[in-house]
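FW: tagging you since you asked about this chain on Friday. Here's the raw sequence from the shared folder, copied in full. Didn't touch anything.
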Amino acid sequence: MMEFIITGGKPLYGSIRLGGAKNSSFKLMIASLLCQGESRLLNLPHISDVEVTKAIITDLGGSVRSAGERTFFIDTKKFISQKVSSKYGSISRASAMFLPVLLARFGRAEVPLPGGDKIGSRPLNWHLTGLEQMGAVITQQKGMMVAEAKVLKGISYRFPKNTHTGTETLILAAVLARGKTVLENAALEPEVDDLMDYLNKMGAKIRRREGRVIEVFGVKRLTPAIHQIMPDRNEAVSYACAAIATKGDIIVENARKDDIETFLEKLEEAGGGYEVGNYGVRFYYRGKLKATDVITRPHPGFMSDWQPLWAVMLTQATGTSVIHEAVHSYRFHYVSDLVRMGAKIKTYQPAVGDEKRFYNFDFQPGEAEASHAIKISGPTDLVGGEFKVHDLRAGATLVLAGLVAKGTSRLMAIEQIDRGYEDLDGRLRSMGAEIRRKTSR
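HL: got it, structure written out here
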Protein backbone atom coordinates (compact mmCIF):
# COMPACT_ATOMS: atom_id res chain seq x y z
CA MET A 1 0.00 0.00 0.00
CA MET A 2 1.19 3.49 -0.88
CA GLU A 3 0.32 6.89 0.56
CA PHE A 4 0.80 10.60 -0.13
CA ILE A 5 2.18 13.07 2.39
CA ILE A 6 1.14 16.61 1.45
CA THR A 7 2.12 19.92 3.05
CA GLY A 8 -0.31 22.57 1.87
CA GLY A 9 -0.31 26.31 1.40
CA LYS A 10 1.92 26.58 -1.69
CA PRO A 11 0.55 28.03 -4.95
CA LEU A 12 1.13 26.02 -8.13
CA TYR A 13 3.22 27.64 -10.86
CA GLY A 14 4.45 26.10 -14.11
CA SER A 15 3.05 23.85 -16.82
CA ILE A 16 2.12 20.23 -17.45
CA ARG A 17 1.26 18.35 -20.63
CA LEU A 18 -1.83 16.15 -20.68
CA GLY A 19 -1.59 12.45 -21.38
CA GLY A 20 -4.22 10.46 -23.22
CA ALA A 21 -7.71 10.34 -21.76
CA LYS A 22 -8.31 7.59 -19.19
CA ASN A 23 -11.91 7.17 -20.37
CA SER A 24 -10.73 6.68 -23.93
CA SER A 25 -7.40 4.85 -23.67
CA PHE A 26 -8.34 1.44 -22.28
CA LYS A 27 -11.50 1.26 -24.40
CA LEU A 28 -9.54 1.88 -27.60
CA MET A 29 -7.11 -0.84 -26.55
CA ILE A 30 -10.08 -3.20 -26.28
CA ALA A 31 -11.47 -2.01 -29.63
CA SER A 32 -8.16 -3.08 -31.24
CA LEU A 33 -9.21 -6.70 -30.65
CA LEU A 34 -11.97 -6.38 -33.26
CA CYS A 35 -9.47 -6.63 -36.12
CA GLN A 36 -6.84 -9.14 -37.20
CA GLY A 37 -3.26 -7.85 -37.07
CA GLU A 38 -1.26 -5.15 -35.32
CA SER A 39 -2.67 -1.70 -34.49
CA ARG A 40 -0.79 1.22 -32.98
CA LEU A 41 -2.16 3.52 -30.31
CA LEU A 42 -0.34 6.76 -29.51
CA ASN A 43 -0.47 9.05 -26.46
CA LEU A 44 -1.49 6.33 -23.98
CA PRO A 45 -1.36 7.51 -20.36
CA HIS A 46 0.83 5.73 -17.80
CA ILE A 47 -2.02 4.70 -15.48
CA SER A 48 -3.02 1.43 -13.85
CA ASP A 49 -6.28 1.06 -15.85
CA VAL A 50 -4.15 0.86 -19.00
CA GLU A 51 -1.84 -1.70 -17.38
CA VAL A 52 -4.80 -3.85 -16.28
CA THR A 53 -6.22 -3.78 -19.80
CA LYS A 54 -2.82 -4.73 -21.19
CA ALA A 55 -2.70 -7.70 -18.80
CA ILE A 56 -6.20 -8.86 -19.83
CA ILE A 57 -5.37 -8.65 -23.55
CA THR A 58 -2.19 -10.66 -22.93
CA ASP A 59 -4.15 -13.30 -20.98
CA LEU A 60 -6.55 -13.59 -23.94
CA GLY A 61 -3.67 -14.41 -26.25
CA GLY A 62 -3.06 -10.97 -27.70
CA SER A 63 0.24 -9.13 -27.62
CA VAL A 64 0.81 -5.61 -26.27
CA ARG A 65 4.27 -4.13 -26.55
CA SER A 66 5.55 -0.66 -25.78
CA ALA A 67 7.30 1.15 -28.63
CA GLY A 68 8.22 4.61 -27.43
CA GLU A 69 7.15 6.70 -24.46
CA ARG A 70 3.38 6.50 -25.01
CA THR A 71 2.85 4.04 -27.86
CA PHE A 72 1.47 0.50 -27.76
CA PHE A 73 1.54 -2.01 -30.60
CA ILE A 74 -1.45 -4.34 -30.11
CA ASP A 75 -1.27 -7.59 -32.09
CA THR A 76 -4.32 -9.87 -32.26
CA LYS A 77 -2.93 -12.69 -34.42
CA LYS A 78 -2.99 -15.15 -31.49
CA PHE A 79 -6.06 -13.69 -29.77
CA ILE A 80 -8.18 -16.81 -29.14
CA SER A 81 -9.52 -16.88 -25.58
CA GLN A 82 -13.14 -16.01 -24.86
CA LYS A 83 -12.86 -15.66 -21.07
CA VAL A 84 -11.58 -12.76 -18.96
CA SER A 85 -10.29 -13.98 -15.60
CA SER A 86 -12.45 -13.22 -12.57
CA LYS A 87 -9.45 -11.64 -10.83
CA TYR A 88 -9.85 -8.51 -12.96
CA GLY A 89 -13.44 -7.80 -12.00
CA SER A 90 -12.68 -6.20 -8.64
CA ILE A 91 -9.92 -3.87 -9.83
CA SER A 92 -11.26 -2.29 -13.00
CA ARG A 93 -14.43 -1.53 -14.94
CA ALA A 94 -12.48 -2.38 -18.10
CA SER A 95 -13.43 -6.05 -17.85
CA ALA A 96 -17.08 -5.47 -18.85
CA MET A 97 -16.02 -3.70 -22.05
CA PHE A 98 -14.57 -6.97 -23.36
CA LEU A 99 -18.10 -8.44 -23.53
CA PRO A 100 -19.19 -6.93 -26.89
CA VAL A 101 -15.76 -7.48 -28.47
CA LEU A 102 -15.56 -11.18 -27.54
CA LEU A 103 -19.15 -11.66 -28.70
CA ALA A 104 -18.43 -9.98 -32.03
CA ARG A 105 -15.24 -11.98 -32.62
CA PHE A 106 -16.13 -15.42 -31.25
CA GLY A 107 -19.88 -15.50 -30.57
CA ARG A 108 -19.18 -16.18 -26.90
CA ALA A 109 -17.88 -14.17 -23.96
CA GLU A 110 -17.32 -14.75 -20.28
CA VAL A 111 -16.33 -11.66 -18.28
CA PRO A 112 -16.44 -10.73 -14.58
CA LEU A 113 -18.87 -8.17 -13.24
CA PRO A 114 -17.01 -4.85 -13.20
CA GLY A 115 -15.36 -3.16 -10.23
CA GLY A 116 -13.81 0.31 -10.14
CA ASP A 117 -15.26 3.36 -8.43
CA LYS A 118 -18.18 3.06 -6.02
CA ILE A 119 -20.06 6.20 -6.97
CA GLY A 120 -23.63 5.04 -6.99
CA SER A 121 -25.78 3.31 -9.56
CA ARG A 122 -24.02 2.43 -12.83
CA PRO A 123 -26.65 0.08 -14.26
CA LEU A 124 -25.47 -2.56 -16.71
CA ASN A 125 -29.02 -3.47 -17.65
CA TRP A 126 -29.23 -0.83 -20.41
CA HIS A 127 -26.07 -2.24 -22.01
CA LEU A 128 -27.18 -5.84 -21.66
CA THR A 129 -30.72 -5.22 -22.96
CA GLY A 130 -29.23 -3.77 -26.13
CA LEU A 131 -26.91 -6.76 -26.57
CA GLU A 132 -29.82 -9.16 -26.01
CA GLN A 133 -31.86 -7.39 -28.68
CA MET A 134 -28.90 -7.87 -31.04
CA GLY A 135 -29.16 -11.62 -30.48
CA ALA A 136 -27.07 -12.36 -27.39
CA VAL A 137 -28.21 -14.69 -24.62
CA ILE A 138 -26.72 -13.44 -21.35
CA THR A 139 -26.65 -15.12 -17.95
CA GLN A 140 -24.85 -14.44 -14.68
CA GLN A 141 -22.93 -17.26 -13.05
CA LYS A 142 -20.89 -16.84 -9.86
CA GLY A 143 -19.92 -13.23 -10.44
CA MET A 144 -19.38 -13.73 -14.17
CA MET A 145 -21.43 -12.60 -17.17
CA VAL A 146 -21.69 -15.30 -19.82
CA ALA A 147 -22.96 -14.28 -23.26
CA GLU A 148 -23.53 -16.29 -26.45
CA ALA A 149 -24.75 -15.31 -29.89
CA LYS A 150 -24.69 -17.24 -33.16
CA VAL A 151 -24.74 -13.88 -34.89
CA LEU A 152 -25.20 -10.26 -33.79
CA LYS A 153 -27.79 -8.34 -35.79
CA GLY A 154 -28.31 -4.62 -36.22
CA ILE A 155 -31.15 -3.05 -34.22
CA SER A 156 -32.80 0.25 -33.43
CA TYR A 157 -32.34 0.93 -29.75
CA ARG A 158 -33.13 3.92 -27.53
CA PHE A 159 -31.30 4.25 -24.23
CA PRO A 160 -33.70 5.03 -21.37
CA LYS A 161 -31.06 7.39 -19.95
CA ASN A 162 -27.95 8.84 -21.50
CA THR A 163 -25.04 6.46 -20.91
CA HIS A 164 -21.43 6.95 -21.96
CA THR A 165 -20.29 3.34 -21.49
CA GLY A 166 -23.57 1.89 -22.76
CA THR A 167 -23.21 3.81 -26.02
CA GLU A 168 -19.64 2.55 -26.45
CA THR A 169 -20.66 -1.04 -25.63
CA LEU A 170 -23.29 -1.18 -28.35
CA ILE A 171 -21.04 0.56 -30.88
CA LEU A 172 -18.39 -2.12 -30.29
CA ALA A 173 -21.00 -4.83 -30.78
CA ALA A 174 -22.54 -3.22 -33.86
CA VAL A 175 -19.48 -2.61 -36.04
CA LEU A 176 -19.26 -6.31 -37.05
CA ALA A 177 -22.98 -7.08 -36.72
CA ARG A 178 -25.23 -7.85 -39.67
CA GLY A 179 -27.13 -4.84 -40.92
CA LYS A 180 -27.63 -1.35 -39.55
CA THR A 181 -27.79 -0.30 -35.90
CA VAL A 182 -29.40 2.97 -34.83
CA LEU A 183 -28.70 4.20 -31.29
CA GLU A 184 -30.99 6.93 -29.98
CA ASN A 185 -30.35 9.08 -26.91
CA ALA A 186 -26.70 8.14 -27.39
CA ALA A 187 -23.84 9.82 -25.52
CA LEU A 188 -22.19 12.96 -26.92
CA GLU A 189 -18.95 12.69 -24.93
CA PRO A 190 -15.76 13.41 -26.94
CA GLU A 191 -14.35 10.08 -25.75
CA VAL A 192 -17.18 8.36 -27.65
CA ASP A 193 -16.20 10.30 -30.77
CA ASP A 194 -12.59 9.25 -30.19
CA LEU A 195 -13.69 5.60 -30.22
CA MET A 196 -15.80 6.14 -33.34
CA ASP A 197 -12.90 7.87 -35.10
CA TYR A 198 -10.57 4.96 -34.33
CA LEU A 199 -13.07 2.34 -35.47
CA ASN A 200 -13.72 4.24 -38.70
CA LYS A 201 -9.98 4.24 -39.37
CA MET A 202 -10.16 0.45 -38.99
CA GLY A 203 -12.85 0.28 -41.66
CA ALA A 204 -16.04 0.62 -39.61
CA LYS A 205 -18.95 2.71 -40.90
CA ILE A 206 -20.18 4.87 -38.03
CA ARG A 207 -21.70 8.33 -38.18
CA ARG A 208 -23.56 10.77 -35.98
CA ARG A 209 -26.86 12.17 -37.09
CA GLU A 210 -28.39 15.35 -35.75
CA GLY A 211 -29.12 15.13 -32.04
CA ARG A 212 -28.16 12.10 -29.95
CA VAL A 213 -28.40 9.56 -32.78
CA ILE A 214 -25.58 7.29 -33.95
CA GLU A 215 -25.79 5.00 -36.96
CA VAL A 216 -23.55 1.96 -37.34
CA PHE A 217 -23.48 0.01 -40.62
CA GLY A 218 -22.06 -3.44 -39.92
CA VAL A 219 -19.02 -4.53 -41.94
CA LYS A 220 -17.51 -7.99 -42.47
CA ARG A 221 -14.05 -7.20 -41.15
CA LEU A 222 -11.85 -4.49 -39.70
CA THR A 223 -8.17 -3.86 -40.38
CA PRO A 224 -5.39 -2.47 -38.12
CA ALA A 225 -5.01 1.29 -37.78
CA ILE A 226 -2.88 3.98 -36.16
CA HIS A 227 -4.60 6.43 -33.82
CA GLN A 228 -3.61 9.13 -31.34
CA ILE A 229 -5.75 9.16 -28.20
CA MET A 230 -7.38 12.47 -27.25
CA PRO A 231 -6.01 14.41 -24.24
CA ASP A 232 -7.61 13.84 -20.84
CA ARG A 233 -10.14 16.60 -20.15
CA ASN A 234 -10.72 15.41 -16.58
CA GLU A 235 -7.03 15.76 -15.88
CA ALA A 236 -7.15 19.28 -17.33
CA VAL A 237 -9.95 20.27 -14.96
CA SER A 238 -8.15 18.68 -12.01
CA TYR A 239 -5.06 20.84 -12.52
CA ALA A 240 -7.19 23.91 -13.25
CA CYS A 241 -9.04 23.62 -9.92
CA ALA A 242 -5.75 22.95 -8.09
CA ALA A 243 -4.10 26.04 -9.58
CA ILE A 244 -6.95 28.40 -8.77
CA ALA A 245 -7.71 26.96 -5.32
CA THR A 246 -4.03 27.39 -4.33
CA LYS A 247 -3.94 30.91 -5.89
CA GLY A 248 -1.47 29.79 -8.53
CA ASP A 249 -0.89 30.19 -12.26
CA ILE A 250 -0.30 27.21 -14.59
CA ILE A 251 -0.50 26.20 -18.24
CA VAL A 252 -2.15 22.91 -19.17
CA GLU A 253 -0.54 22.07 -22.49
CA ASN A 254 -2.71 20.59 -25.27
CA ALA A 255 -5.94 21.03 -23.27
CA ARG A 256 -8.79 21.44 -25.76
CA LYS A 257 -11.24 24.28 -25.15
CA ASP A 258 -14.17 22.51 -26.80
CA ASP A 259 -13.84 19.53 -24.43
CA ILE A 260 -14.22 21.67 -21.28
CA GLU A 261 -16.43 24.51 -22.55
CA THR A 262 -19.02 24.23 -19.76
CA PHE A 263 -16.30 24.14 -17.10
CA LEU A 264 -14.73 27.32 -18.52
CA GLU A 265 -18.10 29.06 -18.48
CA LYS A 266 -18.64 28.21 -14.81
CA LEU A 267 -15.04 29.09 -13.97
CA GLU A 268 -15.53 32.57 -15.41
CA GLU A 269 -18.77 32.92 -13.44
CA ALA A 270 -16.87 32.03 -10.25
CA GLY A 271 -14.15 34.59 -10.97
CA GLY A 272 -11.38 32.19 -11.94
CA GLY A 273 -8.94 33.18 -14.66
CA TYR A 274 -8.14 31.37 -17.89
CA GLU A 275 -6.67 32.08 -21.31
CA VAL A 276 -6.90 29.85 -24.38
CA GLY A 277 -3.96 29.66 -26.78
CA ASN A 278 -2.40 27.37 -29.36
CA TYR A 279 -0.43 25.84 -26.47
CA GLY A 280 -3.53 24.77 -24.53
CA VAL A 281 -5.16 26.66 -21.65
CA ARG A 282 -3.66 28.83 -18.92
CA PHE A 283 -5.46 28.76 -15.55
CA TYR A 284 -4.71 31.39 -12.91
CA TYR A 285 -6.03 33.02 -9.74
CA ARG A 286 -7.16 36.54 -10.50
CA GLY A 287 -8.87 37.53 -7.27
CA LYS A 288 -11.54 36.49 -4.81
CA LEU A 289 -13.77 33.66 -6.00
CA LYS A 290 -17.56 33.98 -5.98
CA ALA A 291 -20.14 31.38 -4.99
CA THR A 292 -21.47 29.55 -8.07
CA ASP A 293 -24.16 26.90 -8.57
CA VAL A 294 -23.81 23.89 -10.88
CA ILE A 295 -25.95 20.94 -11.88
CA THR A 296 -24.06 17.98 -13.33
CA ARG A 297 -25.21 16.74 -16.72
CA PRO A 298 -23.93 14.43 -19.45
CA HIS A 299 -21.77 16.14 -22.07
CA PRO A 300 -21.97 18.93 -23.10
CA GLY A 301 -23.04 19.71 -19.53
CA PHE A 302 -20.92 20.06 -16.40
CA MET A 303 -19.38 16.63 -15.84
CA SER A 304 -20.03 14.55 -12.75
CA ASP A 305 -16.30 13.78 -12.67
CA TRP A 306 -15.57 17.48 -12.19
CA GLN A 307 -17.83 18.25 -9.26
CA PRO A 308 -15.70 16.84 -6.39
CA LEU A 309 -12.72 18.91 -7.59
CA TRP A 310 -14.93 21.95 -8.11
CA ALA A 311 -16.20 21.54 -4.54
CA VAL A 312 -12.72 22.06 -3.10
CA MET A 313 -12.28 25.24 -5.12
CA LEU A 314 -15.67 26.49 -3.90
CA THR A 315 -14.58 26.13 -0.26
CA GLN A 316 -12.40 29.15 -1.07
CA ALA A 317 -15.24 31.17 -2.67
CA THR A 318 -17.26 33.88 -0.92
CA GLY A 319 -20.90 32.99 -0.30
CA THR A 320 -22.93 29.78 -0.53
CA SER A 321 -22.58 27.56 -3.59
CA VAL A 322 -24.71 24.60 -4.65
CA ILE A 323 -23.63 21.41 -6.43
CA HIS A 324 -26.56 19.28 -7.59
CA GLU A 325 -25.52 15.78 -8.73
CA ALA A 326 -27.90 14.63 -11.46
CA VAL A 327 -25.76 12.03 -13.25
CA HIS A 328 -24.89 9.50 -10.53
CA SER A 329 -27.13 8.46 -7.66
CA TYR A 330 -24.49 9.28 -5.07
CA ARG A 331 -21.13 10.95 -5.52
CA PHE A 332 -20.59 12.77 -2.26
CA HIS A 333 -18.37 10.27 -0.43
CA TYR A 334 -15.72 12.97 -0.23
CA VAL A 335 -17.91 15.42 1.70
CA SER A 336 -17.33 13.95 5.16
CA ASP A 337 -13.56 14.15 4.63
CA LEU A 338 -13.72 17.79 3.54
CA VAL A 339 -15.89 18.57 6.57
CA ARG A 340 -13.22 17.00 8.79
CA MET A 341 -10.76 19.40 7.18
CA GLY A 342 -12.96 22.34 8.15
CA ALA A 343 -15.17 22.79 5.08
CA LYS A 344 -18.71 24.04 5.68
CA ILE A 345 -20.79 21.65 3.57
CA LYS A 346 -24.35 20.43 4.05
CA THR A 347 -26.13 17.76 2.04
CA TYR A 348 -29.79 18.15 1.06
CA GLN A 349 -32.39 17.06 -1.47
CA PRO A 350 -33.65 19.79 -3.83
CA ALA A 351 -37.21 19.79 -5.10
CA VAL A 352 -37.11 18.99 -8.82
CA GLY A 353 -40.64 17.88 -9.68
CA ASP A 354 -40.40 14.78 -11.86
CA GLU A 355 -37.32 13.03 -10.46
CA LYS A 356 -37.32 10.22 -13.01
CA ARG A 357 -37.14 12.73 -15.83
CA PHE A 358 -34.72 15.11 -14.11
CA TYR A 359 -32.04 12.61 -13.03
CA ASN A 360 -29.89 10.74 -15.54
CA PHE A 361 -29.64 7.67 -13.30
CA ASP A 362 -32.39 5.16 -12.67
CA PHE A 363 -34.17 7.05 -9.89
CA GLN A 364 -35.88 4.71 -7.43
CA PRO A 365 -38.74 5.63 -5.03
CA GLY A 366 -36.54 5.11 -1.97
CA GLU A 367 -34.12 7.75 -3.21
CA ALA A 368 -36.66 10.53 -2.68
CA GLU A 369 -35.30 10.88 0.86
CA ALA A 370 -31.66 10.81 -0.25
CA SER A 371 -29.37 13.81 -0.64
CA HIS A 372 -28.40 14.59 -4.21
CA ALA A 373 -27.03 18.07 -3.62
CA ILE A 374 -24.69 19.98 -1.32
CA LYS A 375 -24.37 23.57 -0.15
CA ILE A 376 -20.84 24.90 0.36
CA SER A 377 -20.26 28.06 2.42
CA GLY A 378 -16.98 29.91 2.20
CA PRO A 379 -14.32 31.00 2.16
CA THR A 380 -13.02 28.47 4.68
CA ASP A 381 -9.55 27.65 5.96
CA LEU A 382 -8.92 23.94 5.47
CA VAL A 383 -6.71 21.98 7.86
CA GLY A 384 -4.75 18.83 7.01
CA GLY A 385 -5.54 15.38 8.39
CA GLU A 386 -5.35 11.62 7.72
CA PHE A 387 -7.69 10.04 5.19
CA LYS A 388 -8.24 6.85 3.21
CA VAL A 389 -8.98 7.15 -0.52
CA HIS A 390 -12.27 5.47 -1.54
CA ASP A 391 -12.43 6.15 -5.29
CA LEU A 392 -10.54 7.88 -8.06
CA ARG A 393 -12.10 11.36 -8.14
CA ALA A 394 -12.58 11.54 -4.38
CA GLY A 395 -8.88 10.68 -4.07
CA ALA A 396 -7.89 13.48 -6.43
CA THR A 397 -10.21 15.76 -4.45
CA LEU A 398 -8.36 14.98 -1.23
CA VAL A 399 -5.04 15.69 -2.93
CA LEU A 400 -6.35 19.07 -4.03
CA ALA A 401 -7.70 19.79 -0.55
CA GLY A 402 -4.33 18.84 0.92
CA LEU A 403 -2.61 21.35 -1.36
CA VAL A 404 -4.95 24.09 -0.11
CA ALA A 405 -4.99 23.14 3.58
CA LYS A 406 -2.79 24.40 6.38
CA GLY A 407 -0.43 21.79 7.78
CA THR A 408 0.16 18.22 6.60
CA SER A 409 -2.25 15.70 5.11
CA ARG A 410 -1.73 11.95 4.83
CA LEU A 411 -3.69 10.07 2.17
CA MET A 412 -3.71 6.28 2.33
CA ALA A 413 -4.69 3.71 -0.35
CA ILE A 414 -3.66 6.01 -3.18
CA GLU A 415 -3.73 3.12 -5.67
CA GLN A 416 -7.21 4.32 -6.63
CA ILE A 417 -5.68 7.63 -7.73
CA ASP A 418 -3.05 5.84 -9.82
CA ARG A 419 -5.88 4.20 -11.78
CA GLY A 420 -6.61 7.46 -13.57
CA TYR A 421 -3.80 9.98 -12.94
CA GLU A 422 -0.33 9.65 -14.38
CA ASP A 423 2.44 10.49 -11.90
CA LEU A 424 0.16 12.94 -10.07
CA ASP A 425 2.62 13.58 -7.26
CA GLY A 426 5.56 14.08 -9.60
CA ARG A 427 3.66 16.50 -11.80
CA LEU A 428 2.46 18.52 -8.83
CA ARG A 429 5.99 18.68 -7.41
CA SER A 430 7.23 20.04 -10.73
CA MET A 431 4.87 22.99 -10.21
CA GLY A 432 5.93 23.69 -6.64
CA ALA A 433 3.69 21.44 -4.56
CA GLU A 434 5.12 19.77 -1.46
CA ILE A 435 3.93 16.18 -1.92
CA ARG A 436 5.74 12.88 -1.61
CA ARG A 437 4.89 9.23 -2.06
CA LYS A 438 5.84 6.58 0.48
CA THR A 439 5.01 3.02 1.46
CA SER A 440 2.32 2.80 4.12
CA ARG A 441 3.46 1.54 7.47
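FW: The chain has two domains: 2-19+232-439, 22-228.
HL: agreed, and The chain has a mean pLDDT of 93.
FW: great, closing this out.
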